[in-house]
UniProtKB/TrEMBL annotation:
One of its GO terms (molecular function) is dihydroneopterin triphosphate pyrophosphohydrolase activity. This is Dihydroneopterin triphosphate diphosphatase. It holds the Pfam family NUDIX. Gene3D superfamilies: Nucleoside Triphosphate Pyrophosphohydrolase. Its EC number is 3.6.1.67. The gene is nudB. Coiled coil: none annotated. The keyword Lipid biosynthesis does not apply. InterPro entries: NUDIX_hydrolase-like_dom_sf, NUDIX_hydrolase_dom. Residues 4-163 form the Nudix hydrolase domain. CDD domains: NUDIX_DHNTPase_like. It comes from the Bacteria.
Length: 167
């Protein structure tokens, strides 16, 4: 059997409202590990915007225009999609050591990941539908409180940078 390894290039998507409330989701595989949406590329050629759109859809049920044909096929109501312009590449990259507990997901010898940070503006009250195999609960918090609750230092730092990325 050929094992498919994760690609050590991922996205981190900070989902926020105009009031600077930030969505956090709790990992199913680690209790009390709160984070923003994260996820690796599906293949080396997948554009980062596509990775971000796909991961937001898979982890929260929030749909963004311009996703892959697969994501569009899953969408019953195109009117509920957010404009692609709401998703912004913050042009921030974090290179970090992969937590040992998750290294088995990567090819042997891979210990570092490159994370690309995005922000997604959503309307307050947007429905969130979690993937139960990935996340247990979600909450909205003011951005400073959200940063304090994150287990990942790079995630916390991205959230703290939210005000400077507003246009």
């Amino acid at each position: 059997m050929n094992k498919t390894y994760k690609i050590p290039e991922s996205v981190l998507v900070v989902i926020y409202t105009s009031d600077l409330d930030v969505l956090l989701i709790e990992r199913a595989d680690k209790a009390n590990y709160w984070q923003s949406v994260t996820g690796s590329k599906d293949n080396a050629d997948e554009p980062l915007f596509e990775t971000a759109i796909r991961e937001v859809w898979e982890e929260t049920g929030i749909r963004i225009e311009g996703g892959s044909a697969h994501a569009k096929a899953l969408s019953e109501d195109a009117d509920s999609m957010l404009p692609r312009a709401n998703l912004q590449d913050w042009h921030v990259q974090n290179v970090y050591e992969i937590y040992p507990v998750w290294r088995h997901r990567y090819a042997p010898g891979v210990t570092r990941n490159t994370e690309h940070v995005f922000g997604l503006l959503v309307p307050a009250g947007i429905p969130v539908t979690l993937s139960p195999r990935e996340h247990l609960r979600h909450m909205w918090l003011p951005y400073r409180e959200a940063a304090d609750k994150c287990f990942s230092a790079s995630n916390a730092e991205a959230i703290l940078q939210l005000p400077r990325h507003l246009t």
